[in-house]
Amino acid sequence: MANRTVKEAKNVHGTNPQYLIEKIIRSRIYDSKYWKEQCFALTAELLVDKAMELRYIGGVYGGNIKPTQFLCLTLKMLQIQPEKDIVVEFIKNEEFKYVRALGAFYLRLTGSSLDCYKYLEPLYIDNRKLRRQNRLGHFEIVYMDEFIDELLRSDRVCDIILPRLQKRAVHEENNELEPKVSPLDEDLDEDVISDEEPPVPEQEAKQSSRKSRKERSKSLSSSPERREAVTTSQNRSRDYDGEYQRDRDRRERERNRERDYDRRDRDRYEDRERDRDRRRDDYDRRDDYDRRDDYDRRDDYDRRDRNRHDRDRDRRDRRY
Length: 320
Fold this sequence. Notes:
This protein is mostly helical and 320 residues long. It contains 12 helices and 7 strands. Helix 3 runs antiparallel to helix 4 (69-80), helix 4 (69-80) packs across helix 6 (97-110) and helix 6 runs parallel beside helix 8. The longest helix has 96 residues, at 224-319.
């Protein structure tokens, strides 16, 4: 009873909402401890509190396919099917980033292509970090805009096959969506406007640029906000470099581990082949011995028969 979809739920993409998750993963979620203890009798209001407790995203991990809490709450949302306004509030939540990620993932599973483009594309400007657990159980860093881009472009996210999404160009041709405008276009327009300004004499341009650089350097050096921003950007770059180095070291360790596994498997296979060849040689040698023994035994039998025949003939000859 606890694993059934609510009676008021509507079919999504022509099927039961829970069937959007594969059966093997769905059964693993039903058997998980988090589902039995934390997701039992959850309503849309209580689901918000559980979503606020999330600390990472992900699909399944480990050799026995363990589901993450993020995937369990996704299946719970498919089971109770909250109203669209609640899902939109999840997506618009700027304080809790994992609540936004959960709402975006649920909308991508159940929403139409028009709703996906309408509510998920504005999240491209969100560049906060997310922790994601991979299939090996290790954590990696992704950004919110990367996660949204995977939802809109990839066929499988968090080990779940996503429904087919209609091309954005089709909606634009039907006047259902406005042409896509990137936030970077504003900066490009400003650069174009600055290029179109009338030319200034060379000396005046040098003097004005020199003055502007001095004034800018003074204002920037005296501004505490600028110093704080520079320090923050430096810290962010150091964090990024450290994370990149750690990721590269982790990938190198995994490659070395895989090479060791391959080497061990190859050595084991070669040992097994040598043992098989040795046993085959032993069998062939035994067969040769047995065959030679049979030949010798037959020769002995034939010799005895001939000798007995000769004796019998001599005996008959003497008798007559």
